Amino acid sequence: MKRAGVALVWLWATVCGSVRADEIAMLPLGDPSRAFVLASGNAGEVVDCRDMAAKGPATFDAMIADLARADVVLIGEHHTNMPGHEFQAKLVQALLETGRPMVVGMEFFEVGDDAALAKYVAGDSDLRTMLQETDWYGPSGGNYNFAYYQPIVDAAKSKRVAVRGVNVPREWVRTVSRSGRDKLTDEQRVYVPDPGAVDDRHRHVVNRMMGGFGASMPEMFDGMYRGQISWDAAMAASVLRFRAESKGEPPLVVVIVGVGHVGHGLGIPARLKAAEPSLEVRIVAPVSAVRPKEEDRVHPGFVPKESATFSRGFGDYVYVLPDTEGADAYPQLGLRLAATSGATTVAAV
């Protein structure tokens, strides 16, 4: 079983590494009125994908004014892209400056991390203590260098705005993936609601993200897909809980999450809309620009730029990231270990 676990992790890394996220952004999905309409933008620009008549990028201030009127803002990310995280921090800071009651939810914190996060935001603990108490670098933690996320968390801290975990422990999702939701405890099922009927569009996107191996390894893909939709259902439930817990005006809930959970309005946004159709949900999704090569032939009169093209159905707003050529700001290589039944096993590569 240990060998199978290692093989599964290797397979995940292999197939996911073979599909550019921006190939997914080109799929004609999302809002049917714009799913088949392409848009493009240059590195550093934001495109309002709902404005079909727009001749240029949206202004940052206009985007913030619109987002501040929403109920939920889902900000997708590429986890190790530092320019993307810098944009997120700028966006969160601008929304904080509007004065609206807010909650910042984050994928890589879990529902049990709220007390530790509250102490950190209130100034009652330091960063080291918070990271230890949330097990950020431990077996159940965030996987990535916290420096990617610290500007976002500290922006919320500067305004004493709550930072909450939207996710659930990996072990719960692993249980669903392997054995089904029925194997969760009654308490766990409160946080991981029934994901409902499968959306074939979403299943197709997830399969594409994984390199299409669902065709050759259907049983393995079925388990991984159960895990994916369990994450989506759990994070959507957290967003609704944050709003329901408010004693006054419901807060604007801003969620930092991998773009695979929000792109094309599938995943988390679809579950929010199904639960509360009146919610005003905005999706801010990233795409990565491609730097033109000097040897590329171009049409006379055309000036090549670092740009990206995508379906307008990918998000309500799309922010175009510079081409980092796949380089991570904080590269890492190694194993994540986990203790199970008295034995130490490889949890991730």
Helix content: 25-40%
- What would the average pLDDT be, to the nearest integer? 88
Radius of gyration: 20 Å
Number of helices: 12
Strand content: 15-25%
Q: How would you describe what is shown here?
A:
The chain is 37% helix and 19% strand. It has 349 residues and is α/β, with parallel strands linked by helices. The strands form three sheets. Strands 2-9-7-3-6-4-5 form a seven-stranded mixed beta sheet, sandwiched between helices. The chain has a two-stranded antiparallel sheet with strand order 1-8. Strands 10-11 form a two-stranded antiparallel sheet. α4 (82-97) packs parallel to α7 (150-158).
Topology diagram in text:
Blueprint: H1 2-16, H2 21-25, E1 38-42, E2 46-48, H3 60-67, E3 72-77, H4 82-97, E4 102-110, H5 114-122, H6 127-133, H7 150-158, E5 162-167, H8 170-179, H9 186-191, H10 200-209, H11 218-244, E6 252-258, H12 268-275, E7 281-288, E8 307-311, E9 317-321, E10 336-340, E11 343-348
Parallel strand pairs: 3-6, 3-7, 4-5, 4-6, 7-9
Antiparallel strand pairs: 1-8, 2-9, 10-11
Question: What labels describe this entry?
Answer:
349 residues, alpha/beta, seven-stranded mixed beta sheet, two-stranded antiparallel sheet, 12 helices, 19% strand, globular
Explain briefly what this protein structure is.
The protein is α/β, with parallel strands linked by helices. It has helices at residues 2-16, 21-25, 60-67, 82-97, 114-122, 127-133, 150-158, 170-179, 186-191, 200-209, 218-244, 268-275, and strands at 38-42, 46-48, 72-77, 102-110, 162-167, 252-258, 281-288, 307-311, 317-321, 336-340, 343-348.
